[in-house]
Design a protein that fits this description.
This protein is of the alpha+beta class. The protein folds into 2 domains: 151 residues, Jelly Rolls (Sandwich), CATH 2.60.120; 111 residues, Arc Repressor Mutant, subunit A (Orthogonal Bundle). It is built from 10 helices and 11 strands. A hairpin with a 2-residue loop joins β1 and β2. α7 packs across α9 and α7 packs across α10.
Length: 266
Amino acid sequence: MELNGGFYMVEPSSCRFTENLYKYPHIHGDYELIFCLSGQAKAFVEKEQYVLTSGKGIFVFPNQLHFYETVEKGKFGVIVFKPEILPTFKKKLSRRVAASPYFDFSSDKEILSLIENMRTSYDYQSDKYLLKLTGYINFIIYYVYYKMDFLSIPHKDAALFEEIIEYCNKHYKDSVSVTALAKELATNSNRISRVFNTNMKMGIPQYVESLRFSDACHLLEMTDYTVAKISEESGFGSIRSMNRAFESFLGITPKDYKKKMTDRKD
């Protein structure tokens, strides 16, 4: 997985299994499945928290801020994939958003067996495994899709929504306003706001803030930049604005987050 600004780029599909689940807050344009076979973890999608125990998982849609951390070590899996590898469900998924990302497969022996087989045969260096992984993902998504509730997105608004997302992802470090977006995309502000809110369940300012927050978390963990520099690099423009975002998402300051990540590495 490669960072591109505040955004993450992945291969058509990737998979990893771990006993210690952790990923700092991040956003990318792909689908992501996180599931628990044993142990316990906390997963966060936007500002909602979900507890993952054996047989529980979350299905994260593109452009949703998410992160996760272990509560009790166990067996966890993370699959990231592009919709292109799901020809059957590509259109259905592109016009829907999950009412809730949470799903429960604890009582389904077939899916449990499939995931366990996927875990025990895991070999990321094998070309054959990548082909097998695509098959696994198709089967798992078939199961998850019919277990979850989805909200439909009107087809005529899907293209506009993608344009809004693309604009925000490119310009989140600058000043982004609904008025500027409407002018750029040659439509009116009310339609911009309605289409985005319907799809993302949040306003454009909140989404831009989540992109900046994701970028700041990455910089805090991976660099020695000062908080002031990171606030500028990630687009917040001031320490006060970044503090406010961290308090909203995590309930802690950027300095506290940095200390937490440093302690975790030690």
